[in-house]
């Protein structure tokens, strides 16, 4: 078995303010990769609760901390908060 760097995924959901795509764009422009939840949605597959054709009333992104040191996490979260509010 070969060991590899692993990570943590967590989802942030909100209802008002910036769109998930705008936050992803702002983060990317600052060197942080977020994944919009819409990336994971499936269109036209009845086994999924949300089929992608319906408009959600909320936004969400997935944070992926892969091979990230603790020293990098706090400043990155602080930057994400500023980007969300700006």
Automatic annotation (TrEMBL):
<dbReference type="InterPro" id="IPR015422">
    <property type="entry name" value="PyrdxlP-dep_Trfase_small"/>
</dbReference>
<protein>
    <recommendedName>
        <fullName>PLP-dependent aminotransferase family protein</fullName>
    </recommendedName>
</protein>
């Amino acid at each position: 078995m070969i060991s590899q760097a692993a990570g943590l995924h967590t989802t942030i959901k909100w209802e008002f303010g910036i769109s998930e795509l705008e936050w992803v764009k702002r983060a990317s422009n600052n060197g942080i990769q977020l994944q919009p939840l819409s990336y994971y949605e499936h269109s036209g597959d009845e086994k999924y609760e949300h089929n992608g054709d319906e408009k959600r009333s909320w936004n969400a992104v997935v944070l992926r901390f892969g091979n990230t040191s603790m020293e990098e996490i706090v400043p990155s979260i602080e930057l994400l908060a500023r980007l969300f509010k700006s």
